[in-house]
Specification:
Blueprint: H1 19-35, E1 50-51, E2 62-66, E3 72-74, E4 77-78, H2 84-91, E5 99-103, H3 109-121, E6 127-130, E7 132-133
Parallel strand pairs: 1-7, 2-5, 5-6
Antiparallel strand pairs: 2-3, 3-4
Helix pairs in contact: 2-3
Amino acid sequence: MKSRKSLGDSEELKEINISPLIDMVFILLIFFIVTTVFVEEPGVEVQKPKAASIKDLEKNSILIAITAKGEIVFGGGQIGIGGIRPTVRRLCAQEKLPVILQVDESAPGALVVRAIDEAKLGKARAVFISANPI
């Protein structure tokens, strides 16, 4: 029968067990992936008009897209003109956020104006229209 040898004073540890270290690194990796803030894109591709005067906007904002067909999309789902105000109001309940409208260049102008009004009535801090630089 074999018995276990215990480490004496004269014996040294020849290997370091790093498996707990690997487990800890994976747990930290998962933690940082889960807590990362992801930008929620509207979910449709729009052709934005060209603009000479553009500026960088805040990363933490509400993105709403208006397509050429007049569809209003937020978070990959169609919300319609009536869904802008409740969506903005719900997202601005804790902190007032700016709304960025990604408008297709051939979208109906009246719909864009109504979308701006609905976002303002939903208590958005500001409403911007996204454009491509020249």
